[in-house]
Amino acid sequence: MSNERVMKDIQAWEKQWEDYQSTDFTVLYDQWMKRSFRNVNPKAKQTFFNQFDQWLFHTHAYIQGSAFQTEARQRILTSGRIFRSDIEYLEDMRKLPIDQLTYLAHQQIAKGKLYSFAQGGLTGTGGWLLLGIDFPLMMIMNVRAVQLIGLTFGYEINHPYEMMLSLKVFHAATLPKRLQKEAWEELKVELSNHTSPFIYEGDEKLTNETWLEQPMKQGMKSLFILMFRKKIIQGLPLVSMVIGANANYQLTKQVTSFALRFYQYRHIKEYGDFSS
């Protein structure tokens, strides 16, 4: 019954895209982006997005190799043993029913939101260094948040297939809502077509011009922070701190919600009968 209930929740969540209506501004924005990139040299455009993809790959590898991530993996296993004492390896987490996995994933999500909120608040103080590293740091934190959710559901993210899949989940989660449905359906196809966790046979491209709305939003956030950083309340630029904290929190909320639904869906499709 738990699997059926969670699947109904996922289906209800999917309906957000059916109810979504693009505003006149988003339509104009899409048209402007298409016209702008039509005039860009194709090779220069390809080089730019290839370099960004490579940065994401290196970021993923760096996080996976960090001591911080190793400790997080051990904490996940320790948490899993609360429910089943025979959990020894990460793959054993898949023995847990969906409700317990979701509960453990929510613990990781809560931490991720807290870190993003705190980091955004610090960025809101308006320091040039913090503003400069805000976007890459937010990307790193949200890539890691997706990784931790995947680990909680028992998937070793350092395997080639799992690495690409987690990065595609991150990419889809950071897309504008009007573009997420197509990306979600493509992820479902990825799950249906894969044969081995050690080999990735799909398209390894991640970012393109449709994804640029996210960094543009981050740029607008920085602009608002700069506008309000001199508005001091009790010795602190509280307005700009609230702007930074709320924007980063909302992004992490969007990413982790998407990632949780994906790994719930995957678990039910692969192990539904086992954990019913």
Contiguous runs where pLDDT drops below 50 for at least 5 residues: none
Which percent band covers the strand fraction?
under 5%
Alpha carbon gyration radius: 20 Å
In DSSP terms (H or I, runs of 4 or more residues), the helix count works out at 10
Mean pLDDT across residues = 87
Instruction: Give the end-to-end Cα distance, rounded to a whole number of Å.
Output: 7 Å
Number of strands: 0
Largest beta sheet, briefly?
none
**Helix and strand succession?**
HHHHHHHHHH
Silhouette? globular
Domain count: 1
Helix content class = over 70%
Structural class: mainly alpha
Protein described:
- With 276 residues, the chain is mainly α.
- The chain has one domain (2-271).
- The chain has 10 helices and no strands.
- The radius of gyration is 20 Å and the shape is globular.
- The mean pLDDT is 87.
Task: Sum this structure up briefly.
The protein is an all-alpha fold. It has helices at residues 2-19, 24-38, 42-65, 67-83, 98-123, 128-152, 160-173, 177-193, 213-228, 238-271.
Looking at this protein, list some descriptive labels.
276 residues; mainly alpha; EcsC; EcsC family protein
Topology:
Layout lengths: L1 H18 L4 H15 L3 H24 L1 H17 L14 H26 L4 H25 L7 H14 L3 H17 L19 H16 L9 H34 L5
Helix pairs in contact: 1-10, 5-6, 5-10, 6-7, 6-10, 7-8, 7-10, 9-10
Organism: Pontibacillus salipaludis
Protein name: EcsC family protein
Pfam families: EcsC
